[in-house]
Amino acid sequence: MDNLPLTARTLRDARRRSGLSLRAAAKRAHTSHSSLSAYEHGSKVPSLDTFSRILEALGFAVRIELEPRIRERDGMDRGQELVEVLQLAEQFPARQEPPMQFLAILGRKG
């Protein structure tokens, strides 16, 4: 079941969470139970409209967000970018602050 497409896993999980049978869910979503079964098993892929309609019939909202990809930036793999930054950092000498010196003034009266 783990290698099912995301749409299939999502539909199956939503239907189970709704507590509806396959036939009851299909009726609410205005589709056939055989189509819903095929979507849940990954043998058919619903259109975005159908996917949304089924989820809404099961009591769930669909939210789609666009996010920038973090795996690649400007065609460069993010792991490779990190390696190159670390290699660049190795070329610069480490700067260490000189140790602080404390002057102790004992027994001095002002």
Lateral arrangement of strands in the main beta sheet: 1-2
Query: What is the makeup of the main sheet?
Result: 2 strands, antiparallel
Average predicted local confidence, pLDDT: 85
CATH superfamily of the domain at 6-57: lambda repressor-like DNA-binding domains
- Individual helix count: 5
Number of strands: 2
What's the gyration radius in Å?
30 Å
> Do you know the CATH architecture of the domain at 6-57?
Orthogonal Bundle
| Distance separating the two termini | 84 Å
Can you describe what's shown?
- The protein is mainly alpha-helical.
- The protein has helices at 6-18, 22-28, 33-41, 48-57, 78-90; strands at 72-73, 76-77.
- The chain has a domain at 6-57: 434 Repressor (Amino-terminal Domain) (Orthogonal Bundle), CATH 1.10.260.40.
- The protein has a two-stranded antiparallel sheet with strand order 1-2.
- Strand 1 (72-73) and strand 2 (76-77) form a beta hairpin.
- The protein is elongated.
- The chain starts with 5 loop residues before the first helix and ends in a 20-residue tail after the last helix.
